């Protein structure tokens, strides 16, 4: 059995993970859901290529986001029906873009069935058995909830008193740290405060934080301003999206913000790696973003169309958090050779990347397998030190691509738009265990 080391010490979560990893072990007893799943999580081995058999199936659409609250997995996206994997003739259940299941049994929670009238793009675990839901919607059930809501996992009801009042667009990405919720997207206002695409909110009330007013500006021509992804540590916030400046400072599509002081400030960390243009159909091409468990580096994945080895189109790239300067270069880059990557998870043992890629290690590919390319259909893992593809190769039906990863002490959850994962039927949701 592999040893798991979580950077956040939550004893009940670690014990649950060990029970999950032991073959034939019964699921752990129900525990409190007051504490969100520990993040970040460090694995000392790569997950299995064989997914667990009990995750439920999403029968249509796409999964965009996954969160864990206690022992409950919350799944969001754009879909209308789900069913349990066991028994095989389990009935289809109506679910409007959001549902939840038990991490250890796969049983769908009957009491969590909020009707989200619009697409869910982001989820984040909250305190006291709650989950934050971000996306492009105006109501949840009959309750107003424009762009962002906080729901109780026990019954799917909105938490009283949380009223962020997002306006002018939706929420694409969420991160929670230190009693604050960071939201990114294409919105323009939170309550009465102007916040263009990026805001920090009080986790209990949703009120905008006046000490965080970083201005995101300068969208690249051809698309509107938008923050695509956020990743957070106790002192650093990484931001990527369609912008060229943060607080008036040049930051082409990517920047770091110091959130450890009394007032947030843009760090002297700048790269030109994402300044060049990729294909005209992708004016902005950064997508997924994730810190390492220790927060000392982070990895960015992109779309963009084939741009050749000199550009970071259709690639994964590692950057060092502590670097300083105007022309910071990536530690390594791994190119797909012409296929998009949308999601990334970093566990210490591996950098997992997902999209609709056919290859990794393919800098000379042009929608083809160039010299040295390795086949990694739809999902793959990269060595965090060398930047080269690891042997792990479960495969996934490509489709649009993986839109959601979530590493936890017992393995790796995956959300996408297709039905084959690890050479088995797993409709749009699956989990690779440690073992």
UniProtKB/TrEMBL annotation:
Signal peptide residue numbers: 1-21
Keywords assigned: Signal
Gene3D superfamilies named among the record's database cross-references: 2.80.10.50
Cited Pfam families: DUF5122
Ranges that cross the membrane: none
Record protein name field: PKD domain containing protein
Organism: Thermocatellispora tengchongensis
């Amino acid at each position: 059995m592999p040893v798991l080391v979580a950077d956040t010490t939550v004893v009940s979560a670690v014990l649950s993970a060990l029970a999950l990893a032991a073959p034939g072990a019964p699921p752990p007893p129900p525990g409190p859901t007051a504490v969100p799943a520990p993040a970040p999580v460090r694995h000392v081995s790569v997950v299995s290529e064989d997914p667990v058999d009990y995750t439920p199936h999403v029968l249509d659409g796409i999964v965009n986001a996954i969160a864990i609250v206690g022992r409950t997995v919350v799944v969001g996206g754009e879909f209308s029906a789900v069913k349990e994997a066991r028994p095989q003739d389990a009935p289809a259940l109506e679910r409007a873009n959001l549902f939840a299941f038990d991490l250890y049994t796969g049983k769908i929670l009957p009491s969590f069935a909020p009707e989200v009238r619009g697409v869910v793009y982001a989820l984040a675990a909250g305190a006291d058995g709650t989950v934050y839901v971000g996306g492009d919607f105006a109501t949840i059930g009959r309750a107003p909830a424009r762009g962002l809501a906080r729901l109780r996992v026990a019954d799917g009801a909105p938490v009283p008193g949380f009223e962020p009042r997002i306006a002018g667009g939706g929420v694409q990405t969420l991160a929670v740290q230190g009693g604050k919720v960071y939201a990114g997207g294409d919105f323009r206002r939170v309550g009465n405060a102007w916040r263009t695409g990026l805001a920090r909110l009080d986790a209990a009330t949703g009120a905008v934080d006046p000490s965080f007013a970083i201005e995101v500006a300068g969208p690249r021509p051809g698309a509107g301003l938008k923050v695509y992804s956020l990743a957070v540590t106790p002192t650093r916030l990484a931001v990527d999206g369609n912008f060229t400046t943060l607080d008036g400072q040049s930051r082409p599509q990517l920047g770091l913000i110091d959130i450890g002081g009394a007032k947030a400030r843009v760090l002297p960390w700048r790269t030109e790696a994402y300044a060049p243009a990729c294909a005209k159909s992708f004016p902005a091409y950064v997508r997924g973003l994730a810190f390492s468990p220790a927060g000392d580096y982070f990895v960015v994945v992109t779309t963009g169309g084939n741009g050749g080895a000199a550009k970071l189109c259709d690639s994964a790239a590692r950057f060092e958090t502590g670097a300083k300067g105007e022309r910071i270069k990536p530690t390594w880059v791994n190119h797909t050779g012409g296929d998009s990557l949308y999601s990334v998870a970093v566990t210490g043992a591996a950098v997992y990347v997902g999209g609709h890629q056919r290859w990794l290690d393919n800098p000379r590919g042009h929608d083809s397998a160039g010299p040295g390319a390795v086949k990694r259909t739809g999902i793959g893992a990269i060595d965090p030190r060398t930047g080269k593809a690891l042997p792990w190769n479960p495969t996934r039906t490509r489709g649009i691509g993986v839109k959601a990863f979530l590493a936890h002490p017992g393995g790796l959850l995956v959300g996408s738009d297709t039905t084959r994962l690890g050479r088995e039927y797993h409709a749009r949701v699956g989990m690779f265990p440690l073992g």
